[in-house]
């Protein structure tokens, strides 16, 4: 039986003053997500899940949806600039409350090990 993949969650700023700021934040999160996939993780990147969907639902719905997904993750990786994001502060709080490891630098994330079981099982 093959062990399930570990799941990584990408947390970082989404909103910006301009459409271009939002696009840059999405691109930065996408880079982290791509790196995590290359390390063998299944990745939840809320930036890509709801990219440019402003107005489709209240912002709080998107935030709560992200937090619901985060609860199922094995680790959280922060995107550069996370310190200025109120949403990321909530994600960090949720991760800590659920004993989910947080990495502030992608360089320190170990490769996923397909032979280990997920911590959240």
Commentary on this structure:
There is one protein chain. With 121 residues, the chain is of the alpha/beta class. The protein has one domain: 3-Layer(aba) Sandwich (Rossmann fold), CATH 3.40.50.10400. 40% of the residues lie in helices and 12% in strands. It has four helices and four strands; from the N terminus they run E-H-E-H-H-E-H-E. A four-stranded parallel beta sheet has the order 2-1-3-4, sandwiched between helices. Helix 1 links the parallel strand 1 and strand 2. Helix 3 packs parallel to helix 4. The chain is globular, with a radius of gyration of 14 Å. The relative contact order is 0.25.
Helix content: 25-40%
| The CATH fourth-level homologous superfamily | Hypothetical protein PA1492
In terms of structural class, how would the helical and strand content be classed? alpha/beta
Q: Which CATH architecture is right?
A: 3-Layer(aba) Sandwich
Distance between the termini: 15 Å
At the fold tier of CATH, the topology name is: Rossmann fold
- The SSE order reads EHEHHEHE
- The count of β-strands is 4
Assign the CATH class. Alpha Beta
Strand content: 5-15%
Report the major sheet: 4 strands, parallel
Unreliable stretches: 114-121
Q: Based on Cα principal axes, name the global outline.
A: globular
Count up the domains: 1
Whole-angstrom Rg? 14 Å
| Overall pLDDT metric | 84
Q: What's the helix count?
A: 4
| Strand order of the biggest β-sheet | 2-1-3-4
């Amino acid at each position: 039986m093959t062990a399930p993949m570990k799941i990584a969650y990408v947390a970082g700023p989404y909103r910006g003053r301009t459409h271009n700021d939002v696009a840059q934040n999405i691109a930065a999160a996408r880079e982290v997500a791509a790196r995590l996939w290359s390390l063998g993780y299944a990745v939840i990147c809320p930036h890509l899940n709801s990219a440019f969907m402003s107005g489709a639902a209240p912002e709080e719905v998107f935030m709560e949806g992200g937090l619901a997904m985060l609860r199922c993750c094995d680790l959280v990786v922060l995107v550069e600039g996370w310190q200025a994001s109120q949403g990321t502060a909530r994600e960090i709080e949720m991760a800590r409350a659920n004993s989910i490891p947080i990495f502030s630098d992608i360089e320190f994330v170990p490769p996923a090990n397909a032979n280990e079981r997920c911590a959240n099982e």
